[in-house]
Design a protein that fits this description.
The structure holds two protein chains of two kinds. Chain A is mainly α. Chain A has a domain at 32-101. Helices cover 59% and strands 3% of the residues of chain A. The chains are: A mainly alpha, B alpha+beta.
Chain lengths: 113, 211
């Protein structure tokens, strides 16, 4: 693998975080036992929820940019999204999913999120 | 069953002597395949790397479209049929990557990842952090992705996988311009010591097989 490095910073550790995930991704693709099936379904549902959450969040950021919201409204919106974020994280942990798992490759359209 | 490795031109230079490769030709294209090596065997990163090594050996002296790892068909007749059914589309795709390889560039922000909002943090603060991270991404696109795109035949952004990762780009670069591209990456690194740039390759054009 090292001979593939054309330009690398002295410290590579930050880039290495995903190494163990390769095994995980491979095993997820080939096994379809019932437990994994349930996880796969949860993954699909949470992906849709996460898509909506991100869309709403972007919409909120645009509205704040537009300057049409009071301080109090911004605070309330922010709290709502923070709570949603936290809740999503709990659900992900429950089903053993990473943030990266909640994404779909749409081929020529790129990634969903 | 046979494993499919890559689609290339017909005729094609002699195949490297690995994995029992053979080429099946149809409509001016050839598909490089080999008997399945590990049927029912365990799927490990090593198996994936072996597949990658075969595609890279092929890539040394020919243009190709890499076939997604794990694609298998019944026999050579089925492989030729698959090639025949999509030959126009595949020939166009092969033309798009002709004479070029894929380089990957990943950019990490320096310093620790932005900490998650503390318990009881303000909602407005949470949103402000979101705005900052979106702005950081745009900034890196402007400083790194855009100039590199100007040095490539094509480019695409892939989804980032870690919070501190600001960019994950794939670039289709002419074989003769790989060194110049890497020099450009080094110059960008020197100009932006606050970022960490990792450039790898050359890879088969995985990110550029579809229009």
């Amino acid at each position: 693998m090292r001979d593939k490095f054309l330009h690398a910073p002295p410290d590579l550790d930050p880039f290495a975080t995903e190494r163990p995930r390769l095994d995980d991704a491979l095993s997820r693709r080939v096994n379809a036992d019932p437990e994994r099936l349930e996880r796969g379904l949860a993954q699909l549902v949470l992906t849709v929820v996460e898509l909506l959450r991100q869309l709403m969040e972007r919409q909120a950021l645009r509205r704040i940019d537009g300057g049409g919201l009071s301080e109090e409204e911004v605070e309330r919106l922010g709290r709502t999204f923070m709570e949603l974020d936290k809740r999503m994280e709990q659900l992900r942990t429950e089903f053993g999913l990473d943030a990266e798992d909640l994404n779909l490759n749409l081929g020529p359209l790129g990634n969903l999120l | 069953m046979i494993d499919l490795y890559a689609i290339t031109d017909d005729p094609t230079p002699p195949l490297p002597d690995v994995a029992g490769l053979s080429a099946v030709a149809s409509h001016g294209l050839a598909i490089v395949c080999a008997p399945v090596a590990s049927e029912g065997g365990e799927l490990t990163p090593e198996v994936l790397w072996r597949h990658e090594e075969v595609v890279e050996a092929l890539m040394e002296d020919r243009d190709l479209l890499p076939v997604r790892f794990g694609t298998r068909v019944e026999d050579e007749t089925a492989a030729a049929r698959a090639l025949g059914e999509r030959h126009r589309e595949l020939a166009r795709a092969l033309d798009r990557v002709r004479g070029a390889v894929e380089l990957s560039v990943r950019v990490m922000g320096d310093g620790p990842e932005s900490p998650p909002p503390a318990e009881g943090a303000s909602g407005a603060g949470y949103l402000r952090a979101k705005v900052r991270s979106a702005a950081a991404h745009e900034e890196v696109v402007r400083m790194v992705h855009d100039p590199l795109t100007a040095n490539a035949r094509a480019s695409t952004q892939l989804g980032t996988t870690a919070p501190a990762e600001l960019l994950r780009g794939a670039y289709l670069v002419e074989r003769g311009r790989v060194n110049a591209f890497v020099d450009h990456v080094s110059r960008l690194q020197a100009a932006h010591p606050e970022l960490r740039l990792l450039c790898t390759g050359p890879w088969p054009p995985y990110s550029f097989t579809e229009s």
